[in-house]
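REQUEST
  id: r-88c1
  op: predict_structure
  target: GNAT family N-acetyltransferase
  payload:
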Amino acid sequence: MNIRRATHDDYEAVVEMTSDIWAHRGGDYLPDIYHDWLEDEDDPETKTFLATIDGEAAGIVQARLLSPDEAWFQSLRVDPDYRRRGVARRLTEACFEWARDRDARIGRAIIFSWNVASLSMARAIGFEPVTEFRFVFSEPDRDASGPGEHAVSSDPAAAWRYWSRSDACEHLRGLGLAPEESWAMREITSADFDRFADESAVLVVEGPNGTLGTAYRSRTFHRRTDRGNEETVAEYGVGAWDDVDAARSLFAAMARDAATLEADRTRIAIPETARFVSDAAAAGVELAEEPDFVLDVDLVE
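RESPONSE
  id: r-88c1
  status: 200
  body:
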């Protein structure tokens, strides 16, 4: 088995390798994004590894630095014809070594909760469970409103104070969606809230007796729908709130913010708990069918 950097010339091999993956769920998205997803050769913060056996593509994975000590591992795929031959382990070990060489102390990954095979493989390789979250969705609306007694500000200090002491932060272990990468999470700091306030958006729900909720816009991106249409999505890296009314105000604030961007849809990460999920349902937003799991590995050990 040989492990090397993946290149644009490997596209057809990757398409063939992933052709039968997730067929029951509409197929693998990797071929659709491959050329944009692949890093430049001189990129010091990202590397995509390809495993080959007898010259044939057997597996692929990407490693990325999200902060000076946090690495992210994503899109691990193994050709069905080469499973149970140690491909996933070799690719993952290459990621670990690459991340350690760049002084990363922890590595993380998101795995769909329905992907039993990947969950089993991740635990066998050394990943440990960290937390779970669910995406919720709403339509942008310039006129969206919440309960009348709530005001909305953009104070990053208030946002950080609320977030750092919230049940959501505790459940998510301080993690939120990373602005640097799609489908990635990292620790969110007070400096991040300052940056979000300057560069994207911070939303803070205020009630008569103090702060009741917060969110930040992690990024805005374009995607192609199942019908082939392109849509703009405003993504919010975490949603945290005290109660259903605060959730209504926070979702309304996000709907208004997204409308100013002329986005077609919002996507918000929330903690996967009975309270937060049922609050979101009661607030009238659309829920993803299933949660996603976050796992991590200590790269210092």
